[in-house]
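TEACHING EXERCISE
Course module: macromolecular assemblies
Task: Read the component lines below, then compare them to the predicted structure of the full complex.
Student: A.B.
Group: 4
Components provided:
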Amino acid sequence: MSYVIRRLRAFPLVLIGVSIIVFIAIRLVPGDSITAMLGTEAGLLTPQQRDSLAVYFGIDQPWPVQYWRWFTGLFSGDLGISVTYGKPVLSVILERFPLTLELALLAMLIALSIGVPAGVFAATRNERPADLGVRIAAMIGQSTPSFVVGLVIIYILSAGFGVLPTMGAFTPFWQDPLQNLGQMILPAITLGCAFASSVTRVTRSAMLDVLSDDYVRTARSKGASERSVIWRHALPNALVPVVTLSGIEFGYLLGGAVIVEQIYALPGLGRMVLEAILQRDYALVQGAVLFIALNFMIVNLLVDLAYAALDPRIRLEGR
Amino acid sequence: MTSKFRYFLGATTAVMIGLSAVAGHADAANLRMAWAQDATGLDPHKQTAFSSLRLLELIYEPLVRLDADLKIIPGIATSWEFAADGKQLTFKLDPKAKFQNGAAVTSADVKASFERILDEKTGAANRANYLSIETIEAPDAGTVVFKLKQPDAPILTAMTDTNSSIVPASEIAAGTIGTKAIGSGPFKLEKWDPNSKAALVANKDWAGGATGVDGIEISVLPDETAILAAMRTGQVDFALLNDPLIATLVPNEPKLQLNRAPLLAYHVLQLNPARKPMNELAVRQAISCAVDRKAVLDTASLGEGQVTGPITAPFFASDPNSLFCYKQDIDKAKKLMADAGFADGFSATVIAATGEPPTAAAEAQVLQSQLAEIGVKLDIKMMELNVYVDTWLKGDFDMAVALNGGRPDPYTMYNRYWTKNGNLQKVSNFADDTLDKLLQDGRAETDPEKRKAIFAEFDKQLAEKAPWIWLYTGYGYTAQQKNVQGFVPMPTGSLVSLGKVTIQ
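Instructor-supplied answer key:
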């Protein structure tokens, strides 16, 4: 418990650090909200016009003043107003988050349900043709970029079968589960397949390690069935690296999967952040990155806690 | 277990996709439209991006409009007249014109709208086109009189711009322009979720008559390959396309039709005459002679477009073959380089924006190889659009590959670059007495044929002085299902004829 509290205490410091870096980074890039809105037409503005637009976008004050204004707003839950959406940043983020969360969960589900069994399968047939087959498949899966997989899926479905999931607007699961899953399943497969390959490879090598451990030999010599040795004795311990990998991947996915969202036209967090950066919607970029960083930290903490649950030898408390 | 799971996955995928595809076909009277880039805001006076104008022009109306031949036709105004001295422009408003909040469009709204554009606090880029306005008078509810400081023929064409739309005076007073979209156009904005979707419903009170569809549902599909796929499956009726590589695939689809409109916007290699050695006329002319414009068009844009001189509006444009060195002439180019003392060539950096236009990188590469023939070594620097715009506005480049917007009137199109106090002097870095005088003459002259002669001379001079190397104009593409009828492609890229489009 004290471990959790200690970790939670570090959160605010990390978040402040992240917010300062993002705040500066996005402002260091040439161009601002005005050139983003007007393009080259911005050259037609008089200095006074430019000044009043700067006030409109909230970029008229010096950086430290802008940061302080934004930072003090945080304490009242005010992340600022997005100029593109004309709405509070937090509500824009929360509208996009369910999609991103669902996509991340589905992709993980697909990746783990393919990757873990495939990894175990390969490990138990080490260096035999079946192992080689799995490893080649995993290699191909890992090295094919998701935009290729996505575009190929879309092309085959639309040109070959004349079907395609509804694109553009997102239907939340609680409104229409079928419509929702119809929209989400292909993006989830696209994301999941690539990740399944890494899961397979990590599971395989971890299983090989564990299977040569003494306690596995002990279990075998006690007469435990092969099935029980693999699934009950070996696998839980082999899962530690898989959990690490999945935790990091899940954390990334909660930041949005830009390419897959782009291809399947899903309005998720990733595309939102991308558009916000292109539009120089400073408040939205800052708010979104903060939100993503917080998610990442929470996921990381949960992963560390999961280690202890999986492998009692790992102790978190320290002496 | 794995194989069972795979069957489960396969079966559910098939069922779900089938169901969601069926669900997509619900309302036939709505036009389902897709585009890759969404509007960035709703203020018609502030938003100048192509993608924003395509949404806003369906909601708002200016005083006058352009037809497909770029002739000025009635918008909110039914008639207009310049006074004999060219210093007064009077509009009669359509008594049927109504805002979507039910209020009639009156001269007070027109006055308030133009005053808002002219007010520097608004930050309207279009203000630059209206500096000759001295006063705006509204003698009665249906008449507006613009008094001008000097004769200004192109002001009427500027007023066709969606950025000069008329908005309700009451909304200006309430400060809600840009948060609520209330115009007098064919469609009302019912819902807008930026970068995802928008819903437009027909405006029953539209002065232009009944619309052909009950509404338009717009989906933002950022990848144009996905737009094509969605059209192939009948999920989308109508789409706006930017990339010639995607657009040229449309005719392969039996159910789809591609619409092309030659655009006014021009692809150009901008030289910076403030930097050595581009300050030498001979060097600029050498570059002009070394470039094979047709080859740039064919390679970078699959031949989708026409080689162009500086002026792109058909009425004013010259035959490109009559312009200086429009036929590639490497020998002449080499001689010009040698005359300028650069027989061995030189090195320069060319900037281009990533994906904007989609052909930018390819254009830069073709130009790089063409200019290598006269010893000019180009270093290509690709930039994110906003970084590019910032660099471009500062004039901080040797050369720039650009797609610049075109206007129906050459004065409005070019006074910003080639008059001595043009707003974008800093970008063109080229001041020239002859060009300045020709533009001023063209502005004051009201007789169309005389204007044509003035601008023909301007076109010729500009090509010969070669501050920039004009390359080609491309097409504006829209794709549609064949049962969509009545769409008229426009050289401005406008989608305004969607007001009359029907679905058979």
